[in-house]
Each structure stands twice: as structure tokens, then as C-alpha cells.
Amino acid sequence: MKGFYHLGDVATSGVERLVARALELRRGAQARRFPGRSLGLVFFDPSLRTQASMQRGAARLGLELVQLQGGAGGMWGLETQDGVVMDGANAEHIREAAAVLGRFVDVLAVRAFPKGKSLEQDFADPLLEGFRRYSGVGVINLESSLWHPCQALADWTTLDQYQVPRRGKLVLTWAYHPKPLPHAVPNSTLCMAAQRGMEVVVVHPPAFGLHARIQEHAQDLARASGGSVRFTSDREAAFAGADVVYAKSWGSMDAWGQAEREAALRAPYRDWQVTERWMARTPRAKFMHCLPVRRNVVVADEVLDGPRSIVIDEAENRLHAQTALLEELFASLENPTTPAGLSGPSAASPNAKSKEIYS
After folding, report:
1. DSSP secondary-structure letter at 204?
2. How many domains is the chain partitioned into structurally?
3. Could you tell me the pTM of the whole model?
4. Residue among 5, 4, 2, 6 at smallest CA distance from 194
5. 294: CATH
6. One domain for residues 251 and 340
7. Residue 150: what pLDDT?
């Protein structure tokens, strides 16, 4: 196991091992230490849970930490396109930046959100792909345009912690937000639950579907795991009998980069807020959200502060899941023979056709 771009890069048995180890760490097990090894953290976008949990996880493993921030006062602006005349704002090319950082650290972890201007460019994941291509070391995806695999790993850990059945029902519901948000978390939540073998229902207004290729990939994962995936705009039917309600907002692909049109599309759906009235349709369900969350916009206080909300445990599990992940990655550097079960992608992984899936 060299890097971690997408949860589907890991065989399901390997994910299960990471989750089991994360729960051991949560119960107080000591992490293995790797003296003299180093981890680079590169954040081009804001972070609270991801940044703090990676720092703490690295400390638990005794790693030397190199942390860089993009933007003003941080790293130079990076160019990702080849063959361009670099006479604009970007002062450095990803080819040199990634290659140099790869000489300084053993593993790199990178967060880079979509720019929100071009759907084609954003879904090509240029910064993450650049670091993966040119750094020469394993790269952990800390959230990109397409995926947030560390969140997905923590979410699987949380589902197991709360003994949510493998064949349980998870509802991923779109929620209103004053601005368009990336697709990485909903993509990852959908595919994580499908890979786990759950009955997954994605409920969203008509203009807010997920990318067709992501939907196809989730269906492939569900077929391989014995789960199911369906999409609907009927909230009443979707929520009924759920074991988990996972709320998240995301932008419309129909209006990508068009702020006024996007605002007009989402304006009629301010009532798409998770309230106790909606949760009453599923009396046993736990409430999950990746955080940060806008109170009384995405979810009502009564739900977020209520007994069925498990968002704080979910957030804590970022630390334990990422510690388990780092432990596995650095152990593989000590012993290049990858353990069986973490040796490759899941049966329905998109890797074989990754260049064409999201174009």
C-alpha cells in the first residue's frame, strides 16, 4: 500500500482491517512508531479536523512533520498544465514542486479543493494527480475535487463502532446551503456505503444529481458487495426505515461555475433541512455529517444536539482511522511486501479506467 487516493484503491478486506485497527486505537492501543520517517502535509484549502487529526496521528507514530500552506503567505502558486508559457500568477510548476517535496519526505498528504470554474478541469483533479505523478512517494488524498477517502474511512469506522448492520440502510440526503459545495464527500459517502454492502438511497432535488460515472461506480461496488444503490427525489420514501441519515450539500453540475444560475437552482429548496420532523420517519436512525455544518440551514439544532447525532464520534474517528492508515503506509515502507488484503483495489475499483471515468 503506497498511497491513498480513493477508498476503492483498497480491497474491501483491507478496508476492514484498517477499520478494525482504528477501533483498537480508539480503545487505547498504542500505535507503532517509525523513528526517522517523515510526513509532508500540504493544504491548499481550509481545514480543521483533517489538519489537526493528521498532525496528531503523525505524532502518535513519531513521524517528523513538514507542513505547508498554499495561498498568500504560503507556497508559490502552482501551475498544473503542461506546455504553458508561465507568464501569469503561478510561479512554480507542479512537476518541480512535487518532485522536490518528494525528496524531503517519505509520504505526502495533500488537500486541494476544486476551483469551481470548469467542471472538466476540476474533475481531472490536477493538483492531486500532479503530486501522485511527480513526487515519487506515496500520496494521501486529504480531499480533492472527486474524493475524500479519509472521511470515508472514518465513516466506515463509525458505522462499525455503532454496529450499524452491513445490510443496513443509509440515506445520503442533499441539504440546502447558501453556496455550492464540492462533490468529494457525497461521492465518497455513496461509494463507501456501497462498498460496505449497504442499502444506499441518495435523495436530492432534480438538478443536484451526482456525476453519472460516480453513480455507475457505486452500482459496481454494490453489485460486488451484495448491497444496492438507488437515487430519488422523494424524501418521504427515502427516509423511511433508515439506519443512518447522512446529510451533505453539493453543487449542481448543470450550473458549475455559474454563480447566479446555481443560486437560482437551489433557492426553491431551503426546506431541504434535516429536522426532527424528517428524522421521525426513521426512529432508529443515527445522524451523520462530515462537519463543518451550518446549523439551522443544513440541519436543525434539535437533530444535531439530539441523542441520535453521532457527528462528534464521527469526527474523532478521523484521528483513529488516519492513524491506522499512516501506520499501514509507513509499515509498507519498512517492508515493501504488502500484506494480503491491502494488496490492491476493490473488485469494482475505478483504477483501471481512472483516466476516462470523470472526464
Report:
1. -
2. 2
3. 0.94
4. 6
5. 3.40.50.1370
6. no
7. 98
Q: Strand, helix or coil at 121?
A: helix
Give the span between the Cα atoms of 4 and 138, in whole angstroms. Answer: 8
Averaged confidence pLDDT in the chain? 93
Query: What mean pLDDT comes out for the span 226-247?
Result: 97
Report CA-CA distances (Å) from 195 to 4, 70, 90, 178, 203: 16, 33, 39, 31, 19
CA proximity to 142, closest of 207, 90, 210, 70: 70
Looking at the fold, whether 292 and 348 belong to one and the same domain comes out as: no
Q: Domain residues for 175?
A: 163-309
Q: In this predicted structure, what is the pLDDT of residue 338?
A: 53
First to last CA, the chain: 26
DSSP conformation letters of 92-111: EEHHHHHHHHHHH-SEEEEE
Angstrom distances, CA of residue 65 to CA of 25, 35, 37, 68, 179? 21, 12, 9, 10, 34
* pLDDT band at 341; cut points 50, 70, 90: very low
> pLDDT tens digits, residue range 202-234?
999 999 999 999 999 999 999 999 999 999 999
221 and 140 in a common domain = no
